[in-house]
Amino acid sequence: MLRNGRGLTLVEVLASLAILSFVGLLIWQVFFQGLDYSARAVSKNQMQQEANIFSAKLTRIHQTSTVYEVSASPCKVKVDFTKQGVTGEEEFSHPGMCFEVDFTGDIDPNLEDLPLTLTIYDKNNPENRIVIDTFLYRLKAEGN
User: Fold this and answer.
1) Which residue, 108, 134, 122, 131, is CA-closest to 56?
2) What angle do CA 100, 110, 113 make, to 5 degrees?
3) How does DSSP classify residue 142?
4) Secondary structure class of 89 (helix, strand, coil)
5) Kindly report the CA angle at 108 between 104 and 114, in degrees rounded to 5?
6) pTM of the complete model
7) How far is residue 58's CA from residue 69's CA, in Å, rounded to a whole number?
8) pLDDT tens digit string along 13-52?
9) Would you kindly state where each structural domain of the chain is located, as residue ranges?
10) What 3-state class would DSSP assign to 35?
11) 97: closest CA among 50, 57, 144?
């Protein structure tokens, strides 16, 4: 039987497998951490877009309606408004997000401007949320 000194011992094979497994585990962890961060960033971007739509529609209602009422239920906000004698309704909801506002009730936009705090959060991950502070106003003629 010939002995060749060029082969690998079992200890060397096990050590290289352990090092390779450790490096693979680190790469795996970094990859999935990146995927999780990406999913949260996409969700936050969608929440920002929904908040912009909500704010724009509510501003338009505030500026054009004679009176409106805001009511909130879990994860959605409903606005009933009267514009030029015609009543309408706008509901803000999303299957994956919850909407919350800091006020409810009847609002007469001719009498008051309204600070608005809008909170939107992900139903699957409530820690992933955005809060928008804005001000609903109506342009008034001078002297009013």
Assistant:
1) 134
2) 45
3) T
4) strand
5) 60
6) 0.74
7) 11
8) 999 999 999 999 999 999 999 999 998 899 899 999 999 9
9) 39-136
10) helix
11) 50
| Cβ-based neighbours of 138, under 8 Å, separated by 6 or more | 62, 63, 109, 110, 113
Q: For residues 47 and 122, is the Cβ–Cβ distance under 8 A?
A: yes
* pLDDT at site 91: 93
Q: What is the Cα–Cα distance from 94 to 10, expressed in whole angstroms? A: 58
Residue 1 confidence (pLDDT) above 50: no
What are the tokens at 98? 């919850």
> Where are any strands of DSSP class E within 47-128?
67-73, 76-83, 86-92, 97-101, 105-107, 114-122
Query: Which residues make Cβ contacts (< 8 Å) with residue 141, sequence separation at least 6?
Result: none
φ and ψ at 26, to 5 degrees?
-65, -45
Structure tokens that stand for 5 in this block: 């000194």
The token pair that represents 2 in the structure block: 């010939």
CA of 8: how far to CAs of 14, 17, 18, 20, in Å? Answer: 10, 13, 15, 16
Query: For all residues of the chain together, what is the average pLDDT?
Result: 88
